[in-house]
Structure of Response regulator:
Amino acid sequence: MKAILIDDEQHNLDNLRALLAMYCPQVDVCAVALSAEQGKVGLYTYQPDLLFLDIQMPDQDGFAMLRSLAQYDFEIIFVTAYDQYAIQAMRFAAVDYLLKPVDIAELQAAVAKASKQRQLKVQNQQLENLMQLLKTQPSKEEQRLALATTRETRFVKTSEIIRCESSNNYTTFFLVDGDALLVCKPIYEYEEILRDYSFIRCHQSHLVNTAFIKSWKKEFGDFLLLTNGTEVPISRGKKEVIKKALNL
């Protein structure tokens, strides 16, 4: 895959280029750029398959650069050091990103995913969704989560999620329509995303939408009874957190 790297710091470009050369031989870096404007020239000149894009740049950030493009037909891996809003937005949109300093295993995984998408010629719907999130800046109630299963990427409103249950590095989402979606990501990633949307972690394996809690049952142990009849266990260490969340 032909790739272009855009970052406003030369040492970041040099480091990423060296890592790609050593650990991702399927990537051919055809150009690097120290600004969004230089990067756009490279995009039009080389028509790459893959773009590594820094978010925080002084003249024009990565998101603004993308919005300025008439169209794009390449995979994108965002690179960021600390922008928490950007990380949350990208997680909602299921777009790949790398945190600085770049981890080799995460770099290889992101490149492998981009390569697969390129080979299958799948239009990057996740990126389209991200750009819509950035343009419209929807309210929390309107926010949608991109859940990638083995068969599809399902876009679900946070208000449609009753609960999440983990199994090792997998998370199952139970929805109001009765569907259960198995996603290959650990539950702690979704706990961070859903914290501001009235979800609480009542157990190591369970994350619950408080809107669907019917009662707290205390016979034969502590359980949250949900409106769909499901009983979710409460771990001893989470009792005070739940009491605070439910104003008890």
About this structure: The chain has two domains: 2-135, 141-245.
